[in-house]
Amino acid sequence: MPRQARLDAPGALHHVIIKGIEGRKIVNNDQDREEFISRLGNIATETGTSIYAWALMNNHAHILMHSGPSGLSRFVKRLLTGYAIYYNRQHRRHGRLFQDRYKSIVCEEKPYFKELARYIHLNPLRAKLVDSLAGLDRYRWCGHSVLMGRIRKGWQDRDYLLKRFGATEREAKKAYRQFVKNGIDQGRRPDLTGGGLIRSKGGWSEVKTMRRSGVREKSDERILGSGKFVKKLIQQSAKFKKRRFSPGESLKRALLLIDKICKKEGISVEALKRGNRQHEVSKVRSKLAEKFVKELGLSLIETGHLLGVSGSAISVTLRRLDEKNRDR
Predict the structure, then answer these.
(1) How many structural domains are present in the chain?
(2) Model confidence pLDDT, tens digit, residues 279-322
(3) Do residues 165 and 267 both lie within one domain?
(4) Which of 2, 125, 257, 282 is least surrounded, with the fewest CB atoms within 10 Å of its CB?
(5) Domain-embedded: residue 313
(6) 192, 213, 228 — which closes off a domain?
(7) Which neighbouring-strand residues pair with 15?
(8) Parallel, antiparallel, or unpaired for β 13-19 and 223-224?
(9) Domain housing 153
(10) Is 210 inside a domain boundary?
(11) Contacting residues for 23 by C-beta, under 8 A, at least 6 apart
């Protein structure tokens, strides 16, 4: 049976699993690990991708992330292609480094966010790369050490996760660490590494009970979540695909939007393109940035060039807008 097309809706929560081809190593030493993690962070910043949990293992990697405005595929493609070129040169090898298709499961946030972060961050302990939770606290190649404040990674959004555990950082870190500790004895969690009805409902017995009572719920092997969430996500993904334009058409529409919205809001196009930071100009810039990236598919750098600011400034703007929308 042919595989379904990957779901790719900006802002969706993804559990991404990247594996070496035929189970082979994707890192040989700490230099490789540093290269992979640096690329991960740089590309996340450039594409407005929010990363909450990650673990780099010897032959695979896990990432928990909200995809950026341009979606998941571009982000992962840049990461894997660039790193594979580096790795092959460094180790004088040829051919593919990663499996043809990385695995990505779109996850419903409320029931799964904390569980997924814990599952991902316990990977090095389960694989015996560290021998204790104290060792994991200091382990450089996993996002847990960043949450504990032992390692600094400015691109990892630690606040977004920690605020779910407490009002102050000290309180949140203590509660988060206890949560991780409580999960050690759970072992492997196949229910968190895929989608579909059985995983989403918590097991086959739950599905049988549901069916005996006559309940039918929409499900999808690419999604971990309720029937309502599955339906909404598939609709969003379809809309995202329809919105894509050719590069030339996107640029043409962007220039027309600048003229139209500046005229409507009573500000000059010159002030916008000069990077003017007055409140009204910044408001229009934020509005246009969201449209350019999410609706027209322009990159952060292209959008920044059109609006008189840097690509990283556009990334910060879009992240704030996404956080504001999620908190509503």
Answers:
(1) 2
(2) 888 889 998 988 887 777 777 788 888 888 888 788 888 877 77
(3) no
(4) 2
(5) yes
(6) 192
(7) 64, 105
(8) unpaired
(9) 13-192
(10) no
(11) 59
Residue 239, in any domain of the structure: no
Q: Are residues 186 and 254 in the same domain?
A: no
CA nearest neighbour of 63 among 8, 143, 175, 159: 143
Distance CA 60, CA 27 (A): 9
Instruction: Note whether 174 and 49 are same-domain residues.
Output: yes
Tell me which long-range contacts 269-273 makes (C-beta under 8 A, separation of at least 24).
Answer: 272/307, 272/308, 273/306, 273/307, 273/308
Tally of residues, the chain: 328
- pTM, entire model: 0.71
Q: Shortest CA distance to 210 belongs to which of 167, 218, 52?
A: 218
End-of-domain residue from the set 132, 160, 192: 192
Report which of 285, 284, 292 is spatially closest to residue 264, judged by C-alpha positions. 284
pLDDT of residue 291: 83
DSSP assignment of 291-316 equals IIIIIS---HHHHHHHHTS-HHHHHH
pLDDT tens for 60-101 read 999 999 988 778 888 999 999 999 999 999 999 988 999 878
8 Å CB contact between 129 and 139: yes
Q: Are residues 64 and 127 in the same domain?
A: yes
| Amino acid sitting at position 83 | Y
What confidence score (pLDDT) does residue 4 get? 56
Is residue 314 domain-resident?
yes
Rg (CA), the chain: 21
CATH of the domain at 58: 3.30.70.1290
Q: Sheet harboring 103-107: ordered strands across?
A: 50-56, 60-66, 13-19, 103-107, 223-224
Mean pLDDT of the chain: 84
CB distance 145 to 137 below 8 Å: yes
279: Cβ–Cβ under 8 A, 6 or more apart, which residues? Answer: none
Distance CA 30, CA 180 (A): 25
What sign has the CA pseudo-torsion 311, 10, 198, 17?
Answer: negative
Cβ-based neighbours of 164, under 8 Å, separated by 6 or more: 113, 114, 172
